[in-house]
Amino acid sequence: MTRDTDDDPPDEPTEETRSDEQLRMDGGAAAGADDVALDPWGSATVDDYRKLFDQFGIEEFEDVLPEIPDPHYLMRRGVIFGHRDYRPVAEAMRNDDPFAALSGFMPTGDPHIGHKLVFDEIIWHQQQGGDAYGLIADLEAHAARGLTWAEIDEHARDYVLSLLALGFDPEAGELYRQSDNREVQDLGFELGAKANFSELGAIYDFDGETDVSHMQSVVTQMADILYPQLDEPKPTVIPVGPDQDPHMRLARDLAARMRYFKVTEAFASFEADPEERAIIAEAYEALSERHPDETIRCADAARYLENGRDPDATDPNATTADSAIMMLKEAGKEPLRPRTRFLDRNATDEAFDALIEAIDGEKRVFDEHIDAFELSRPAAEALARQVELDHGGYGFLAPSSIYHRFMTGLTGGKMSSSIPASHISLLDDPEDGYDKVKAATTGGRETAAEQRELGGRADECPVYELYAYLLAGEDDEFAADVYEECVGGERLCGGCKEQAAELMAAFLEDHQEKREEWAEKLDELDIDFDADDKRV
């Protein structure tokens, strides 16, 4: 625990304390966080966000940032640090094409400033022209956390009021509760037929003691994620914390499993996995260059691969290469030709026949797939989706996601709804919000002299996070100035906390006034907060 340093600041920070590396605006990783463990109902901390890129395949958000028109300040400052497949959403924004944003809130307590990150992300996507959805995950709260329906109703009302007060347009978007949305429940039933207990157990660590309602709440969440695409397939982004990534991985898998056709690439009648296909492609390209006017056959590629390998070399892909060679030998004199393949996943007979008719140019029809030789993969994807939609399928696009950093608790460690001093509720009296900020731990040095000499540790400071995540709003220059003044030794903790406390009190006062305005109009919205028809 560090002390405040309230003495007057020096005239200028030293150059040694203002390196480019220090002038980051993302607030750093949460102090005292645990090892990487993505549990949607457990720990909400990650000690090194970079590990998520390697371990779970989350992509760095800064790579896609230049493609986003007028990005939100949470994106610009690195608070939103990762994504899965966000480019289709960014492309839809640039082209004014349909897209959607959805996120849910489990009403287990008061909404707090950590939840505001998700509120802001939904609202921003709505303002960019997307269809916006805010849902109350009441079935999950009841099944996974055991809350009564009366408790859920009270918290749900508070979440909705804060979302509205922050700028969500209910006329242009949709608010709903899982328990009241029959379309979501019906879709969840269909999705449940594509998942099994072993899979849920592996993803969520369910076991024989897990109740069925908890498992059912998972497929309901999958239906929530895909719900914006029920009327038409469109890019859809789900803003979440990284602990919710298991839900996103499963939702993307289920979206694919619901499709009538899987579109892939191939070189012969047999089916190869991506690694085998890459090896076969290499052989085909090499032989085509050597013999541009000859028909390349599978046996030719097998010989090429066998002759080109060093039998004494240690090859990590040896098993894959052996498998590819075996398939090529078995195919013998069959011509080796690149083609786009439509694999039958769930297609009706009528849809399969319709796809055959719809493919122009040369094609070959097999029992469970169709090969097209004059169709690019993007064109094939569009054709497969259209045939599916014409014959009663969903045509889902894989949902995208963006991931924001967790806010550090005001007392250090993680921000927790069960520890009032660690967070600021959006329902806190402005004076209480002021006091909590003033009492917060900081990244300051032990003395004012050390602060002036060494600079503060903004990357480890919960108070700086308040500026970067909330209090600076759209003003990047202000957020940068706070950071630079801190790490340069010019800004001392006492004055910094006083300024933050005043801004927090003003924010809470304004927010709660807007909540009161919406409370008077809440009955006009198509969402129910009455638990009378549910067991308590």
From TrEMBL:
ATP-binding as UniProt keyword: yes
**What ranges does the record list as Basic and acidic residues composition bias?**
15-24
UniProt feature, compositional bias: Acidic residues: 1-14
Q: Where in the cell is it found?
A: Cytoplasm
Cite the GO molecular-function annotations of the record. Answer: ATP binding; tryptophan-tRNA ligase activity
Motif 'HIGH' region, chain ranges: 107-115
Q: Where is the composition biased (Low complexity)?
A: 26-35
> Motif span ('KMSKS' region)?
414-418
Source organism superkingdom: Archaea
Which keywords does the record carry? Aminoacyl-tRNA synthetase, ATP-binding, Cytoplasm, Ligase, Nucleotide-binding, Protein biosynthesis
* Protein name per Swiss-Prot or TrEMBL: Tryptophan--tRNA ligase
The primary gene name is trpS
